[in-house]
Amino acid sequence: MLGETKRNRISERREATRREIVEAAWQVARERGLAEVTLREIARRVGMQAPSLYGHVASKNEIYDAMFAQAWTQFHEGVRGIDQAIPEDRERALIFFARHFFDFAVHDPVRYQLMNQRTIPGFEPSPEAYAPAVAVLEDLGQRMAEFGITEQEDVDLWVALIGGLVNSQLANDPGGDRWGRLLERTARMYLRDLDLTTAGTTPVPTTNGDRSRA
Protein backbone atom coordinates (compact mmCIF):
# COMPACT_ATOMS: atom_id res chain seq x y z
CA MET A 1 0.00 0.00 0.00
CA LEU A 2 1.10 3.56 -0.67
CA GLY A 3 2.57 5.28 2.35
CA GLU A 4 3.32 2.01 4.14
CA THR A 5 6.85 1.63 5.46
CA LYS A 6 8.75 -0.94 3.43
CA ARG A 7 10.08 -3.73 5.64
CA ASN A 8 13.60 -4.94 5.31
CA ARG A 9 12.91 -8.65 5.69
CA ILE A 10 16.56 -9.65 5.25
CA SER A 11 17.58 -7.34 8.09
CA GLU A 12 14.74 -8.65 10.24
CA ARG A 13 15.78 -12.25 9.67
CA ARG A 14 19.40 -11.47 10.48
CA GLU A 15 18.37 -9.73 13.69
CA ALA A 16 16.13 -12.64 14.65
CA THR A 17 19.00 -15.05 14.05
CA ARG A 18 21.34 -12.92 16.14
CA ARG A 19 18.83 -12.93 19.01
CA GLU A 20 18.61 -16.70 18.71
CA ILE A 21 22.40 -16.96 18.86
CA VAL A 22 22.56 -14.83 22.00
CA GLU A 23 19.80 -16.85 23.67
CA ALA A 24 21.63 -20.08 22.83
CA ALA A 25 24.78 -18.62 24.38
CA TRP A 26 22.87 -17.86 27.58
CA GLN A 27 21.57 -21.43 27.65
CA VAL A 28 25.09 -22.85 27.38
CA ALA A 29 26.43 -20.41 29.98
CA ARG A 30 23.70 -21.29 32.48
CA GLU A 31 24.17 -25.00 31.97
CA ARG A 32 27.97 -25.16 31.82
CA GLY A 33 29.38 -21.79 32.84
CA LEU A 34 30.41 -18.69 30.91
CA ALA A 35 33.86 -20.04 30.09
CA GLU A 36 32.30 -23.09 28.43
CA VAL A 37 30.44 -21.13 25.76
CA THR A 38 31.72 -22.28 22.35
CA LEU A 39 30.79 -21.29 18.83
CA ARG A 40 30.40 -24.95 17.90
CA GLU A 41 27.84 -25.58 20.64
CA ILE A 42 25.95 -22.39 19.89
CA ALA A 43 25.81 -23.29 16.20
CA ARG A 44 24.48 -26.73 17.04
CA ARG A 45 21.70 -25.26 19.15
CA VAL A 46 20.57 -22.82 16.50
CA GLY A 47 20.76 -25.45 13.77
CA MET A 48 23.67 -24.30 11.64
CA GLN A 49 27.27 -25.26 10.96
CA ALA A 50 29.89 -23.50 13.05
CA PRO A 51 31.48 -21.68 10.06
CA SER A 52 28.06 -20.27 9.16
CA LEU A 53 27.93 -18.56 12.54
CA TYR A 54 30.61 -16.15 11.36
CA GLY A 55 28.09 -14.68 8.96
CA HIS A 56 26.27 -13.30 12.03
CA VAL A 57 28.98 -12.78 14.66
CA ALA A 58 32.69 -12.15 14.18
CA SER A 59 33.87 -13.95 17.32
CA LYS A 60 32.85 -15.46 20.63
CA ASN A 61 33.71 -12.16 22.32
CA GLU A 62 31.14 -10.46 20.13
CA ILE A 63 28.55 -12.84 21.54
CA TYR A 64 29.68 -12.05 25.08
CA ASP A 65 29.42 -8.37 24.16
CA ALA A 66 25.82 -8.78 23.04
CA MET A 67 25.00 -10.75 26.20
CA PHE A 68 26.58 -8.04 28.39
CA ALA A 69 24.60 -5.29 26.69
CA GLN A 70 21.38 -7.28 26.94
CA ALA A 71 21.85 -7.96 30.66
CA TRP A 72 22.45 -4.32 31.60
CA THR A 73 19.64 -3.16 29.34
CA GLN A 74 17.25 -5.55 31.06
CA PHE A 75 18.24 -4.22 34.46
CA HIS A 76 17.98 -0.59 33.36
CA GLU A 77 14.53 -1.13 31.90
CA GLY A 78 13.47 -2.90 35.08
CA VAL A 79 14.57 0.03 37.25
CA ARG A 80 12.65 2.47 35.09
CA GLY A 81 9.60 0.27 35.41
CA ILE A 82 9.47 0.64 39.19
CA ASP A 83 9.68 4.44 39.41
CA GLN A 84 6.15 4.79 40.74
CA ALA A 85 6.84 2.39 43.61
CA ILE A 86 9.89 4.21 45.04
CA PRO A 87 9.31 5.17 48.70
CA GLU A 88 9.74 8.84 49.63
CA ASP A 89 11.61 7.97 52.82
CA ARG A 90 15.35 8.08 52.22
CA GLU A 91 16.20 4.87 54.07
CA ARG A 92 13.31 2.92 52.58
CA ALA A 93 14.20 4.14 49.09
CA LEU A 94 17.80 2.95 49.46
CA ILE A 95 16.61 -0.44 50.67
CA PHE A 96 14.11 -0.59 47.81
CA PHE A 97 16.79 -0.03 45.17
CA ALA A 98 19.22 -2.37 46.91
CA ARG A 99 16.64 -5.15 47.10
CA HIS A 100 15.77 -4.72 43.43
CA PHE A 101 19.41 -5.12 42.39
CA PHE A 102 20.06 -7.90 44.89
CA ASP A 103 17.10 -9.96 43.66
CA PHE A 104 18.00 -9.34 40.01
CA ALA A 105 21.56 -10.51 40.68
CA VAL A 106 20.90 -13.64 42.71
CA HIS A 107 18.06 -14.74 40.44
CA ASP A 108 20.56 -15.36 37.63
CA PRO A 109 24.14 -15.80 38.93
CA VAL A 110 25.63 -16.35 35.46
CA ARG A 111 24.12 -13.11 34.19
CA TYR A 112 25.43 -11.26 37.25
CA GLN A 113 28.88 -12.79 36.77
CA LEU A 114 29.06 -11.47 33.21
CA MET A 115 27.77 -8.05 34.24
CA ASN A 116 30.07 -7.46 37.19
CA GLN A 117 32.95 -9.90 37.35
CA ARG A 118 35.71 -10.03 34.73
CA THR A 119 36.08 -13.81 34.59
CA ILE A 120 36.48 -14.30 30.82
CA PRO A 121 40.10 -13.92 29.67
CA GLY A 122 40.45 -11.47 26.82
CA PHE A 123 36.90 -10.13 26.98
CA GLU A 124 36.21 -6.48 27.63
CA PRO A 125 32.81 -5.00 26.77
CA SER A 126 32.75 -2.54 23.92
CA PRO A 127 31.75 1.09 24.59
CA GLU A 128 28.39 0.37 22.95
CA ALA A 129 27.75 -2.66 25.17
CA TYR A 130 28.94 -0.80 28.26
CA ALA A 131 26.63 2.17 27.62
CA PRO A 132 23.61 0.66 29.46
CA ALA A 133 25.80 0.01 32.53
CA VAL A 134 26.99 3.62 32.44
CA ALA A 135 23.37 4.77 32.17
CA VAL A 136 22.45 2.70 35.24
CA LEU A 137 25.25 4.27 37.29
CA GLU A 138 24.32 7.76 36.11
CA ASP A 139 20.70 7.18 37.06
CA LEU A 140 21.77 5.86 40.44
CA GLY A 141 23.85 8.97 41.05
CA GLN A 142 20.92 11.22 40.17
CA ARG A 143 18.51 9.30 42.36
CA MET A 144 20.87 9.30 45.34
CA ALA A 145 21.47 13.04 44.91
CA GLU A 146 17.74 13.53 45.48
CA PHE A 147 18.27 12.01 48.92
CA GLY A 148 21.23 14.20 49.80
CA ILE A 149 23.95 11.78 48.71
CA THR A 150 25.99 13.79 46.24
CA GLU A 151 29.62 12.74 46.67
CA GLN A 152 30.82 10.19 44.10
CA GLU A 153 32.80 8.27 46.70
CA ASP A 154 29.61 7.85 48.74
CA VAL A 155 27.76 6.47 45.72
CA ASP A 156 30.73 4.18 45.05
CA LEU A 157 30.63 2.96 48.63
CA TRP A 158 26.93 2.08 48.35
CA VAL A 159 27.56 0.17 45.13
CA ALA A 160 30.42 -1.72 46.79
CA LEU A 161 28.36 -2.56 49.86
CA ILE A 162 25.47 -4.03 47.90
CA GLY A 163 27.80 -5.78 45.47
CA GLY A 164 29.57 -7.33 48.43
CA LEU A 165 26.31 -8.65 49.84
CA VAL A 166 25.42 -10.14 46.46
CA ASN A 167 28.83 -11.81 46.15
CA SER A 168 28.58 -13.26 49.65
CA GLN A 169 25.07 -14.52 48.97
CA LEU A 170 26.05 -16.27 45.75
CA ALA A 171 29.21 -17.74 47.24
CA ASN A 172 27.83 -18.94 50.55
CA ASP A 173 24.06 -19.30 50.40
CA PRO A 174 22.90 -19.77 46.79
CA GLY A 175 19.15 -19.94 46.63
CA GLY A 176 18.75 -18.46 50.11
CA ASP A 177 18.54 -14.93 51.53
CA ARG A 178 21.10 -14.91 54.35
CA TRP A 179 22.87 -11.81 53.04
CA GLY A 180 19.69 -10.32 51.59
CA ARG A 181 18.41 -10.00 55.14
CA LEU A 182 21.30 -7.62 55.84
CA LEU A 183 20.15 -4.99 53.33
CA GLU A 184 18.17 -2.94 55.84
CA ARG A 185 20.97 -3.01 58.41
CA THR A 186 23.47 -2.02 55.73
CA ALA A 187 21.33 0.96 54.69
CA ARG A 188 21.04 2.19 58.27
CA MET A 189 24.79 1.85 58.87
CA TYR A 190 25.52 3.65 55.61
CA LEU A 191 23.22 6.56 56.38
CA ARG A 192 24.62 6.89 59.90
CA ASP A 193 28.10 7.12 58.42
CA LEU A 194 26.93 9.97 56.19
CA ASP A 195 25.02 11.69 59.00
CA LEU A 196 21.82 11.20 57.01
CA THR A 197 19.75 9.23 59.45
CA THR A 198 16.61 11.36 59.23
CA ALA A 199 13.84 10.41 56.83
CA GLY A 200 12.99 12.52 53.81
CA THR A 201 14.48 13.82 50.60
CA THR A 202 15.97 17.13 51.73
CA PRO A 203 19.70 17.17 50.94
CA VAL A 204 22.03 17.68 53.88
CA PRO A 205 24.30 20.71 53.29
CA THR A 206 27.96 19.94 52.76
CA THR A 207 30.99 22.22 52.66
CA ASN A 208 33.78 21.41 50.23
CA GLY A 209 32.82 17.76 50.41
CA ASP A 210 33.40 17.64 54.20
CA ARG A 211 30.77 16.54 56.69
CA SER A 212 30.60 17.24 60.40
CA ARG A 213 30.54 13.91 62.24
CA ALA A 214 28.32 13.42 65.26
What does it look like?
With 214 residues, the protein is mainly α. The chain folds into 2 domains: 7-58, Arc Repressor Mutant, subunit A (Orthogonal Bundle); 65-214, Tetracycline Repressor, domain 2. The chain is built from 9 helices and no strands. The chain has helices spanning 9-32, 39-46, 50-53, 60-80, 90-107, 109-116, 127-145, 152-172, 183-193. Helix 1 (9-32) packs across helix 2 and helix 4 (60-80) packs parallel to helix 7 (127-145). The longest helix has 24 residues, at 9-32. The radius of gyration is 21 Å and the shape is elongated. Residues 199-214 have low confidence and may be disordered.
Q: Could you name the key traits of this structure?
A:
single chain, 9 helices, 2 domains, Arc Repressor Mutant, subunit A, Tetracycline Repressor, domain 2, disordered C terminus, mainly alpha, 214 residues
Précis, in short:
This protein has 214 residues and is mainly α.
Mean of the pLDDT scores? 88
CATH class of the largest domain: Mainly Alpha
- Annotated CATH homologous superfamily of the largest domain: Tetracycline Repressor, domain 2
Share of helix, binned: 55-70%
Would you list the SSEs in sequence order as H and E?
Answer: HHHHHHHHH
Q: What fold name goes in the CATH topology slot of the largest domain?
A: Tetracycline Repressor, domain 2
Uncertain regions spanning at least 5 consecutive residues: 199-214
Shape: elongated
Please count the helical segments: 9
Strand fraction equals under 5%
